[in-house]
Amino acid sequence: MSSNTSTAEPLSAGLNLQLSTMMFLQYAIWGAWLTILYPFLMGYREMPLSDVGWIFSIGAVGAIVAPFLAGQIADRYFNTEKYLGISHILGAILIWQLASISTFWGFFWFSLAYSIIYSPTISLTNSLSFHHLPDRDRDFGKVRVWGTIGWIVAGIVMGHWLLASWTPNEKEPAKGVTLEQIYNDAGTDQVAAAIAKNPKQLDGVLTVKLIQKAKEKTVTAILEDANKEVPQKTATDENGVALVDDKGEEKTIIDYPAAKTAALTILDSNETELANAEMKTLAKDIQTGSQNKGRADAFRLSSLLGIIMGIFCFMLPKTPPARNEQKSATVAALSEVKRQPLITLFLLAVPISCIHQFYFVFASDFLTQFQAGAAGFVEKVNSIFGVGGGGLMTIGQMCEIAVLAAMPFVAKRLSRKTLLATGIIAYGLRMFLFAYVNSFPETMHLAIVIIGSAMHGFCFGCFIFIAYMVVDEETTDDIRASAQSLFNVVIIGVGIIVGSKISTGIGELALEDGVMNYPKLFSYPMWAAVVCLILLLAFYPNRSLSIENTDSGESNNPEPSDKGESRSVTEDDPEPDNSEEKTTPEK
């Protein structure tokens, strides 16, 4: 039922406020911590990338078990609002612990428990909304958009918190201890003095090793920009014994004295210029390290929001269990998936989800380097979004709102295939901009990565959202909810598990002396997007197979389908049993 022909009563202001607040808190809880997870684990906890990959993967397990918990338990035995309240309070207790857990296995098991508790609440907030909205088609969009706004607000709040509380002064990291003093200290006296005067920001961050790494990164960049080879030497332990890798080959590290000499040759022996460049890198690394430490507060923010959400849920309208004992339509949904265009869509969902993970795993850390050492345009951007990358990533959600707002008009004029292709192109373009940002003038770097972040709106709106619409349009009423749940499991369950391992595995290949080679890293998903685009163009039909004519093999339903035009773009398909409502993931 479209909004133009609806005869349902208007959505009351009180119910609108209740449901919108619920959505705001639901996604603010998630958005507060998800984007900062990688730099916190690897940058501050110093976990290896392989461990980080496992933690991202285990977080998707909840998406796989969510249909069972939400559909088979929550909707049949508990009032939805009570289940939500209890889940969010328990989740808040768990995620608070993640701020202080330093071991891999501790973080792993708490993440798994939190995922299993939190994930079902996503679909349950949808089903509760559907239960009480007078007209789902007309009203759900205006309620659900507050979830995206909640994600944006949480990201920006966290960014400003990092800027205000976890960003040392670049010229004087500690009161009375300048950056130049720290840089020139051959031993540990100035490092210790700085930590003693600013323990909150510098303890566990500022080390002699950090200073040396900053120097090595600087001379490496100078040599690589000049297309010169970076001198290497064999890595040894404290006894002078050569270290070997997993293949039994000797490990090599940068030979800093030789590299410094080579860099000075390029700089015409200007030692002052080299020292200034190294201090600039050191200032950025100190700020980034402190911000990584401060990201622990994101879990605390999420926990506080979870407590508020848990209490608030008990004030939501009463939503009794459906107690619907219908047999699952999953088997029938699997049968439907075997035909076009669903088979192509489902097969592309996993690699697209993998590409998606490169962004959500690495983007926060990647963007942070463009926000450090703020001056001019960068300083203005930081004053709006804060620092740490997470706030800057919310530009993608802002663009998402704009894209979805335009979708009712665009979807009537462009085929589903064209829109899906547009989404894949956006995935590839984002990775291209991130991979080759250094090819642009330095003054344009932040603007380029902002454009790349904005591509998220097209990635989500034109591929992920349209994909859910296609599943909705290409399945019959009796299996539609099961098909949506199945696609949900594929794209935010299996896809994220596989994508997390692949992205962090490639990340290990792109690590060079402990420093991420982002051009190398992002080139992999860029080319993967090109391959996905070719596969879509080759195998996705130009016309959808009409459901009514599937048995006869006829295909007379051109895209965009009439059915697709009549649906609100923010609609979740109404079903008698709200246990299997579809859930489009925020990310």
What attributes does this structure have?
mainly alpha; single chain; 23 helices; two-stranded antiparallel ribbon; 6 strands; 587 residues; Growth Hormone, Chain: A
Trace the largest sheet across and list its strands.
Answer: 1-2
> Which range does the strand content fall in?
under 5%
The gross shape turns out to be globular
Query: Which architecture name of the domain at 329-370 and 386-545 does CATH use?
Result: Up-down Bundle
- Termini Cα gap: 28 Å
CATH superfamily of the domain at 329-370 and 386-545: MFS general substrate transporter like domains
Stated plainly, the CATH topology of the domain at 329-370 and 386-545 is called Growth Hormone, Chain: A
Major beta sheet, specifics?
Answer: 2 strands, antiparallel
Spans of at least 5 consecutive residues whose pLDDT stays below 50 are 544-583
Helices and strands, in order, run as HHHHHHHHHHHEEHHHHHHHHHHEEHEEH
CATH class of the domain at 329-370 and 386-545: Mainly Alpha
Mean pLDDT: 84
Classification by helices and strands = mainly alpha
Number of E-type strands: 6
Radius of gyration: 26 Å
Q: Could you estimate the helical fraction of the residues in percent? A: 55-70%
Number of helices: 23
